[in-house]
Every structure is written in structure tokens, then in C-alpha cells.
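FYI - complex with uridine-5'-diphosphate, inputs then prediction.
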Amino acid sequence: PAGKFLVTGGAGYVGSVCAARLLEEGHDVTVVDDLSTGHRDAVPPGARFVHGDAAEVARSLLAEGFDGVLHFAAKSLVAESVAEPASYWHGNVTTSLRLLDAMCWHGTPRLVFSSTAATYGNPDRTPIPESAPTEPTNTYGFTKLAIDHAITTYAQAHGLAAVSLRYFNVAGAHRYWGERHSVETHLIPIVLQVAAGERDRVQIYGDDYPTEDGTAVRDYIHVADLADAHLRALHHVAAGEHRIYNLGNGAGFSVREVIETCREVTGQHIPSVTAARRQGDPAVLVAAGERARTELGWKPERPNLGDIVNDAWAFARDGHTAYARSRTD
Ligand code: UDP
């Protein structure tokens, strides 16, 4: 049945794709975003948009009666989180606590929260199950883990039905919605910027890792698959429960494999050079995905790296302008 949902951070990458998918499923969607990193024109048509701080807006807006909140609004740059902890503790933790308070006050029954593989830190085994120790190695990971703990206790005490989804490496695009960061740090968009001639070359951060080709291995998951896990999570959790799921592809790809796939998809040469390791980067981060598969009945429908890169490339070249055109036609 269709529901009424508040999407915080719905002008950002994952939030806008989830908002679009919710609308496609016939739900009523309100997006709240302060546009600090998001884009007004990334909010899908059909969603109501409220500009402002997620917690502030939720405090008054949730009085309308919502079926749930999908909470994406967050600061998410690892290096920045280490340099400016206060803005991450307040921006992520304080805001989320005030959002939880508003939900309890208004009796909003459901929450889906964007957590992260960064809560596990440097794992002692791979693939990483949800039961792995949580030992973040940076402020960003600490803030997301703190919010996860807060959600557990709020769910128990106040009967909230909550799910935290721990994302591995989100990539790709869904129709007109994709990745548009002003400061780009992620591998696939950077490699595609090289393919598009917007950068000279890609730096490979370390080729002496204990992996098959010496470069770091990550679990890249298609953003549309990730969004579908959110839709399922909304309907699979009971009042008073807080469930945690890792969301990954189940397969790892090395930095060299990613660059090679981007060369194949784009037909461009894409110069690369080896550089020093990036501080704090583990060799391998791959999700154990059994829990999401058995409990949510979810599995990635687009696990092929070529398909993920192809969608990211289509968006990078044309997605945003095609969207602007579609609105004026
Ligand atoms: N990486 C790289 N060059 C870049 C950006 C990233 O070699 O310009 C590597 C990075 O060291 C990591 C992988 O690509 O091993 C994925 O990095 P990304 O920042 O996309 O995601 P993360 O896994 O750090 O969340």
C-alpha cells in the first residue's frame, strides 16, 4: 500500500534516487534538504520540497502524520570529518537525535537510516558480516555508529521500527539521478572525469596491497539496487526492532579492474599513475550479504561492474542536462 514518507537529504545522491524510486512505487514523498551539498534540481518532480535543516523541519512537519522517515541527510567526507570533528558530531549526531525526538513526539512509526561500512573500520576478516566488531577509524564512521546505537535504544524504548543500512561503495545512476559532488573523492566518478577529459589522469592510491593485482578491493553496488533495499526495509521491520543490514554486491573489484572497466565502457584511454596509499584505506572491504538476502528477500539485480559503470557514464555525460530538458519539454 502507498505510504507518506519524509526523505531527509533527498537532494543528494542516494537520497534523490530513493525519492525517485518511492515515487515510482506510488508513495507520497516530501524531501527536506538544506542544499549544503545537494542540488535543488535533483529533487524528483512529484516530490514536495522543503528547504531547511532536517531536524528543524521534521519537528513541525511530522505533525501531519507520516508513515516513515528515510534519513539520508549527513556530512560524509572522511578527511573533512577528521579535520573538523565538531561539524560531523553536530551535523550528523545532534541532528539525528533531534530527528528521532521529533519522530517519537509525533509518533512516526518507521525509520530507515543510511549507515556505512565505515562503522566496521579495518576489518579482521572479509567478507564482513553485520556481527563484525565496529571499530571506526575516522570521525565520520564514529558519528554513524553513534547514531546506530542511539536508534537501537530509541526503538526499544519508544517502539520505533528501525533499519540501518550499511552501504559499501555506492555507484551508478538511476534515470536522471546520479552522483554530482562538488568535491569528488570517489573512484568511479573520478575515473569517468578522466574519460570525459575533465581531468588528466587518475591516481591509483597504492599498488602494494596484499591483493591479486596489488590495488585495493571494494564492493561496488548499483545505487538503484541500494534504493530497492530501502523500499523493502520499510516493510520488513516491526515496532520496537532495530535491524542492521550490510548492502553490497557480494563481489569485490580492485582499483585496476574499475579503471579497466571504465576504459571498456567509455572507449577512452584513461591514463593512470600509481601514487601513495591514501591514509586509512584498508586493503579489502567486501560485504557479507546473507542477512539482507534472507531477511529482506533482497539481492542486487545489477551486480555487473560494466552495467554500473555504464549507468554512471550515461549520467555523467548526459543525465543532468537530459533531465533539465525533460522538464521544459
Ligand atoms: N581510489 C584511488 N584513486 C582515486 C580515488 C580512490 O585509487 O582517485 C581508491 C581508494 O584508495 C579506494 C578505492 O579507490 O581503495 C575506492 O575509493 P572511494 O573513495 O571511491 O571509496 P571508499 O572505499 O574510500 O569509501
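The chain is about 40% helix and 20% strand. The first strand starts at residue 4 and ends at 8.
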